[in-house]
Amino acid sequence: MTNPNEKIVPPDLVYVTFIRSTPQKVWDALTQSAFTTQFFFGRTIESDWKQGSPWRLVMEDGRTDVEGEVLESDPPRRLQVSWRVDWIEEARALAPAIVTYDIEQAGDAVKLTLTQHNPGPVPRKFVDAGKQGWAAILSSLKSLLETGQPLVIRMKPPE
Amino acid sequence: MSDAQTRFVYITYIRTTPEKLWAALTQPEFTKQYWFGVTMESDWKAGSKWEMMHDDGRVMDAGAIIEADAPRRLVIKWRNEWKPEFKAEGYSRCTMELEPTGDVVKLSVVHEMDTPNSAFINEGVSNGWPKILSNLKSLLETGAVVMTEKA
Fold first, then answer.
1. Is the pLDDT of residue B151 over 70?
2. How distant is the Cα of A14 from the closest Cα of chain B, in angstroms?
3. Domains in chain A: how many in total?
4. Using N-to-C axis directions, what is the helix angle for A23-31 and A124-147, rounded to 10°?
């Protein structure tokens, strides 16, 4: 039995999905609140998406979910941000993750690759929640772009 | 996971029912659409033979059904048959779990080998599943796949 509070330095989390869309639409969906409110558990997103600028993911009640800095911005191909979870007290003290979105045309589809790199130790429960969460978020993004309707997926934060 | 294993995990959420998803995972009229022409042959009972064929009739992968609990859980003993270096690694195990939540089904695919650094898992399976399952999701949600060629 693994201990959910045990801290580990996880391997990079990589999630690949192929979406019937264009790279620009995928970029817009990842960076504009009109889309994120639909597929990212209701969150709005704020930034001018220039390298060095701050960015923020905001919950419906106004609290900050995640904040960080834009490390690399090459629309509509690559976006890299630092990722510090703010709303869970225990997560606040961790070294920020580096999250990268790579967007490329692959035949008729757009290949979206999400990579989350954690430079420091993270409790197992957050690593597991990240795997579940990204799968839900990116599944809903794909549905939104392909059908106009995001998915409704209920999920609890790690305890 | 112990160090003696190689494991690939993919989770996707699909707007469908467990019954439709089970049918899509097992019936040739579905698999050939989203799995780049592939069909599977089995009676989908524990202990039964399982084979995956290319559209030209070549056997790509083969093995047996370890567990089948429609429409919830399917475990397949799975060996690649066409690439000698993959075949030499022996049997892998693929576990598919379907869990409904509202009008969405969570599909988890865990494909693992009881040896470290398996090329079949790290090179074959890891590249294949995201394409196949993206195609499957699109087929069930929109009626059409995203990719007809394995790019």
1. no
2. 10
3. 1
4. 130
Domain span including residue A68: 13-147
Nearest C-alpha in A relative to B140 = A143
Residue A155 lies in a domain: no
Decide if A91 is inside a domain.
yes
| Chain B residue whose CA is closest to A21 | B146
CATH number for A128? 3.30.530.20
Q: How many CB pairs under 8 A join A and B?
A: 71
Q: Which of A18, A149, A152 sits opposite B134 (nearest CB)?
A: A18
Q: Would you say residue A87 lies in a domain?
A: yes
Mean pLDDT of chain B: 95
Give this complex's ipTM: 0.95
- A85-143 pLDDT, tens per residue? 998 888 898 999 999 999 999 988 999 999 999 999 999 999 999 999 999 999 999 99
What is the distance between the alpha carbons of residues A54 and A75, in angstroms, rounded to a whole number?
17
Flag whether pLDDT at A1 surpasses 70: no
SS3 A114: strand
**A30 Cβ partners below 8 Å, 6+ apart?**
A36, A79, A101, A141
In-domain check, residue A104: yes
